[in-house]
Design a protein that fits this description.
Helices cover 39% and strands 20% of the residues. It is an alpha/beta fold. It has one domain (16-135): Response regulator (Rossmann fold), CATH 3.40.50.2300. The longest helix has 14 residues, at 26-39.
Length: 143
């Protein structure tokens, strides 16, 4: 079963979009899921532990944005990005990795990611990048 977060709804609000968080470390995955769900209360947040699981979700779900780690068991984030973009070209991918060397940033963009954010301690940077890529998404302050 895939973990999912979504905000409490009044019953009249539809969920506006879907975000997938892909990371093999449960604590990081849950932190990012909570961060996204808090900032964007009208979203549905799904999780995957591997690139293969993410690809399976791409085949069955309409994913608006994916926050994707580079170092995953099996297929890495670069190959996953290429395959996701083949399946779902409109899906926005933000690479999120502790390996924030320029070579990883360049490889992420070359694979088809829209942005790269290091996993450092500043979670606001991830929120800012998502906001810049998805400017029409309603945030917690708008609802």
């Amino acid at each position: 079963m895939i973990p999912m977060l979504s905000s409490e709804s009044t019953g009249t609000e539809a969920l506006a979009f879907t975000v997938l968080v892909v990371d093999d470390h449960a604590a990081i995955r849950e932190t990012v899921m909570t961060l996204v769900a808090t900032e964007y209360p009208r979203c549905r947040v799904l999780a995957a532990e591997s690139a293969e699981e993410a690809l399976a979700l791409c085949r069955t779900e309409r994913l608006d944005l994916i926050v994707l780690d580079i170092k995953l068991p099996g297929m890495d984030g670069f190959e996953a990005t290429r395959r996701i973009k083949e399946l779902s070209p409109q899906t926005v991918i933000v690479m999120h990795s502790s390996s924030d060397q320029p070579v990883y940033q360049a490889a992420s963009l070359a694979a088809g990611a829209s942005a790269f954010v290091g996993k450092g301690r500043n979670s606001r940077k991830l929120v800012a990048v998502i906001a810049s890529l998805m400017p029409n998404w309603p945030t917690g302050g708008a609802g």
